[in-house]
Write a structure and sequence with these properties.
Layout lengths: L1 E6 L4 H4 L7 E5 L2 E2 L3 H7 L4 E8 L2 E8 L8 E3 L37 H7 L10 H10 L4 E4 L5 H8 L8 H9 L4 E7 L6 H12 L5 E8 L17 H22 L4 E3 L1 H6 L22 H16 L8 E8 L3 H14 L3 E8 L16 H8 L7 E5 L16 H8 L3 E4 L3 H9 L20
Length: 452
């Protein structure tokens, strides 16, 4: 049972006499415990709701179009508490955070409902057979799984959980039940690469067409690893060895099913010193949120926007500075040359920023902090604006990971700092000083997670 905090005006629920403060007990005889129960059972055309208020239980019967919403609002998007992670993974990024950051960044979620609603990854160690039954009954698909390895003993070691190997049985049940699976492998040199990676990809590809995609990403190591498992970073040779395995299995999947399925992140290609594959390689970009094909997708949308823009000469000279992570600097700088060559009264300074806040091997743009940007840009001629990538800032808020705000950054640099949307069209518009395309409305329930 869950408490209702709001009823949308004019909704079917309001017309049925349901009020804020009422408690929803069941729909058509099914007890409602969380958002998945509610969303699944409200889809029926004829509904019998059992509710409770101070005067006691009462029933509301409604008839509506199938899949139409009732109009009830609840205290949280899950209608329940988030399930936290029970593992102690040797590569966990949260365990490598410095002290003093905002509290939400230290929460480790491991919740299948967040996987379905927001694309978060789960490990299957925080789930039981009854929950698997519910997923199969409701056909909740796709589910995003942090696999890391299919060797049970190695999985227990890597995840610091003696049940981590046993929990792989849930993966097979989901696949047999036709649930689409997106899988993630955080590669740690000397642990789950090499022969272990071969075995893992063989087992995953054996799941058949239920396997929708696999992303292989290199472990990120910060400078705050004192007392943690001794991990090493990928070098050029080890990154190339991992890519050879990943691409070979991707090609096997393409030959068997017509789709590549298995991919490496952009970062692994950069570590290997290799060119990123062409945009066609990534098909429909099933793992772009894991950094798989993100740079190619940005380049493609940027070049399309350039062609659509036509004549880009500006009436007055303009100069912009763009801070970026060291990882993708060379690729992005070459991409920007297209605009530099076509707009001669425009200066674009792409500036690689060293990540001193996290240190270690962390060098991606999305993990840059306001403090590091100030350090990297201070004393430079920044021109008219500083363009800040959308993924540096908290969703829906102009706040960096170190809690510096965008206005504070502007003040400290003495130059206006502007948030830039995620597409190439957004970037081109910001560079040219034009209005960026309208962004979709922010979802107030969007969940902040390091797994994304």
């Amino acid at each position: 049972m869950v408490k209702i905090i709001g009823v949308k005006p004019g909704s079917r629920a309001q017309r049925g006499g349901i009020s804020p403060g009422d408690v929803l007990i069941s729909i058509n005889g099914h007890e409602i415990g969380d958002i998945l129960d509610y969303r699944f059972f409200e889809t029926e055309r004829e509904l019998k709701l059992v509710l409770e208020r101070e005067a006691g239980e009462f029933t509301v019967e409604l008839v509506k179009p199938r899949y139409a919403e009732l109009g009830l609002e609840f205290e949280s998007y899950l209608m329940d508490r988030e399930r936290s992670c029970r593992n102690k993974c040797v590569f966990c990024f949260i365990d490598q955070l410095p002290k003093g950051m905002r509290e939400t960044l230290y929460f480790k979620d491991d919740d299948d409902r967040l996987s379905f609603l927001f694309g978060n990854y789960i490990t299957l160690t925080n789930i039981d057979d009854r929950e698997i039954d519910r997923i199969l009954e409701m056909h909740i698909s796709p589910i995003n799984i942090s696999v890391h390895t299919m060797e049970p003993e190695l999985r227990c070691k890597m995840m610091g959980n003696r049940f981590a190997g046993e929990s792989l049985r849930h993966l097979y049940r989901l696949a047999e039940g036709g649930i689409k699976l997106n899988c993630q492998i955080v590669l740690c040199p000397g642990l789950n690469d090499g022969e272990a990676l071969e075995f893992t990809l063989k087992e995953l590809c054996g799941l058949g067409e239920s396997l929708q995609s696999v992303a292989c990403v290199p472990v990120g190591l910060t400078r705050y690893r004192e007392g943690l498992y001794p991990l090493t970073a990928f070098d050029r040779d080890s990154a190339n060895a991992a890519l050879e395995i990943i691409e070979r299995w991707g090609e096997r999947c393409r030959e068997a099913w017509g789709v590549r399925t298995v991919y490496a992140s952009d970062e692994l290609y950069i570590l290997a010193g290799r060119e990123l594959p062409p945009i066609e390689f990534y098909e429909d970009f099933p793992q772009i949120e894991n950094g798989v094909g993100m740079l190619r997708d940005l380049e493609d949308s940027f070049l399309w926007a350039v062609e659509e823009a036509g004549d880009m000469e500006l009436s007055v000279p303009r100069r912009v500075a763009i801070p970026t992570g060291e990882c993708g600097y060379d690729f992005l700088n070459k991409m920007l040359d297209v605009v530099r060559d076509r707009c001669h009264n425009l200066s674009i300074d792409l500036i690689p920023i060293e990540n001193r806040f996290f240190g270690g091997t962390v060098n991606v743009t999305g993990l840059l902090t306001g403090g590091d940007i100030v350090r990297g840009l201070s004393g430079r001629e920044l021109g008219d604006q500083v363009l800040i990538a959308n993924n540096m800032l908290r969703s829906g808020e102009d706040i960096f990971l170190d809690d510096m705000t965008l206005p504070e950054l502007s003040e400290r640099l003495g130059t206006p700092a502007v948030r830039v949307g995620s597409s190439g069209a957004d970037l081109l518009a910001a560079i040219l000083g034009r209005e960026q395309p309208a962004a979709p409305a922010h979802n107030p329930y969007e969940y902040e997670s390091w797994e994304k």
